Amino acid sequence: MLTLPETKTLLLSLRDGVLHITFNRPERKNALSPQMIDELIDVVTAVSTEPELRALVLRGAGGTFCAGADIKEMAARDASTVKPAGDPQLALARSNRRFGELVSTVRGATQPVIAVVEGAVMGGGFGLVCASDIALALADARFGMPETGLGLVPAQIAPFVVERVGLTHARRLMLTGARIDGTEAARLGLVHEVYADTAALDAALDSVIEQIRRCAPRATAATKRLVLSTPGRELRSVLDEAAQIFAQAAVSDEAREGTVAFVEKRKPSWATRVTK
Fold first, then answer.
1. What is the phi/psi pair of residue 2, to 5°?
2. CB 15 within 8 A of CB 57
3. Closest by alpha carbon to 22, among 5, 36, 33, 2?
4. Is there a single domain that holds both residue 253 and residue 145?
5. Which residues lie closer than 8 Å to 44 by C-beta, 6 or more apart?
6. Where are the alpha helices (DSSP H) in 179-216?
7. Domain range enclosing 245
8. Domain identity same for 125 and 89
9. 3-state percent helix, strand, coil for the chain, nearest multiple of 5
10. What gap in Å lies between CA 187 and CA 196, rounded to an integer?
11. Is 228 helix (H, G, I), strand (E, B) or coil?
């Protein structure tokens, strides 16, 4: 039985083996407070070793994905951690690095992570979309990295944005603070598909979950680890490791079940809905 951490800033719903994580600070446009960051890290970490959990869905309450960092709360916490003889710059660096840990944790989740994007997607919210495996958005969603306009730097999300959309587009978006809509985000590869309305977005989410459900969970996790470890590595090393991963999968119970199901023309056991 999956045990989830208690949360105050997130709504958690486990349906048919999929964990729906909803950012629940609509009065702040779901801006990321220090507490929300801590809770999201705790939740993703807690479920990362659960093979029966098929996917994580990230979404925002009130029709807004995430307006970025809650600057007021961040500033208040940073000020409270600086003693009279302390170093305020060090406190700020630690706080900022914590957000990088969040994005890394989401990116490295064992399960596929699906971002369902509506409304504002700013700063840290932009980074979380970049960390997702699959991103679906409304055409009128609004994306941007406003940090430089505030005299700040999109520090922790920078490598994830570059990885997602490439250096050329990342430079333009970060250095101008440009706002783009969902259609442009899809053109850049930030999101995968865009939809005209919420009904179509919800239907697309259901379809993606069904596609994931047809894939074996341990094979999916191994594939994700391999893909994420590939950039920047020497090709021979990647292929050597890939051969070992393939061999391990080929002699697994999943491979045996998948082969038998194919021969018998039925769905494999993992494709059956299991409500928990």
1. -75, 125
2. no
3. 36
4. no
5. 56, 105, 106, 109
6. 182-188, 198-213
7. 216-271
8. yes
9. 55, 15, 30
10. 16
11. helix
